[in-house]
Amino acid sequence: MIRASVSLRPDMPYLDVDFEEGPIWFISDLHLSPQQPALTRFFQQFCETRAKEGRAVFILGDLFDYWVHPDQSRESAYAEVFAHLQQLVAAGIRVYVMVGNRDFALSKTLLTSFGLIPIPDPMALRLGTQNILLTHGDLLCTDDRRYQIFRRVIRHPLIRLSVGNLPYSCLQKLATGLRRGSTRAVQKKSLNITDAHPLAIQTALHHGIADQHLEQGFDVLVHGHTHRPVWEHTDDGWRMVLGAWSPDAACIGRWAAGQWSLEKIMLTP
Distance from the CA of 128 to the CA of which of 146, 173, 225, 253 falls in 20 to 30 A? Predict the structure, then answer.
């Protein structure tokens, strides 16, 4: 039986869950949208196969290509995604959702209405004897100063309240404009700027991210966002970077019986 509790270690939200031997899946950067139906079909296949073999699925941000308003959940393309997740929940699989830089407007109220479990960024997780730090990953890209400023501004409660009161149609146009601008900006930036900074990785493993800390540090850091999948060991600990999804392949994380692996899954006919 799965037992779960949420407690607070010094300033760090800490999820203490007994998943027994697992497995547990970690995914991120799916970027699902009506414009990419093939991606949604691939996600459906994952939900009906690999996901159902596990005890839990952790979605570490950017489940959707963008999210601006609760009304999106009523549109068929988005409703389909939530239906797949609800089927997992109905099968007894716990689905945890962390928002990312593209879907940070997803509210806890909306997620819980579908039986999903919202988790903050960052989140500390205990698996077996290991302390795990989960984060979307954009907070680790500290060299991208313009983005970090934009992130703080756009997520400020007053800004979110003001923008959230705009009509849905206006928000859709705003999101489209921001996405185009973001794509152009990223293309002009060097690869180093848009990657996780080594010092930020080291600090995260030793203490945590931003002002949230766990006194004893972490054994494993799991994140997405950079779209550069890797499973690596450093002097400071282990790091798993999850991959972005394409319509026929994805790199996802797996934990089972204390063992970690970064696995490439493929769409099957």
Answer: 225
